[in-house]
Prior knowledge:
Helix content: 40-55%
Shape: elongated
Number of helices: 6
CATH architecture: 3-Layer(aba) Sandwich
Strand order of the largest sheet: 1-2-3
Amino acid sequence: MIDAVVMLGTPLYFAGAGRLTELAIKHKLPLPGAREFAKAGSFLSFGPNRVDLFRHGAIYVDKVLKGANPAELPVEQPTKFELLINLRTAKLLGLTVPPQLLARADEVIE
Length: 110
């Protein structure tokens, strides 16, 4: 028996966010995913803030355009993560979200 679904981020994944979320709810499966999925109705999202990632990417591009050797630039990891919880979907799935988790969420969709 399947208890949840986890999808990896690909362009097809993001393009199908609405439909995948619809199917997960229909089959009563929590579907954690990217921010777009939580907005489209999935149960929750936890991951790096992509706007912040793109901003750091632009800083790298700027350095390369100014003459920096890409091979000498340090590798960085995300430092800003966000948690979104969709309470509407949690209720549809019969899930109870602990108040401690709700308090830590960056955004709660009701």
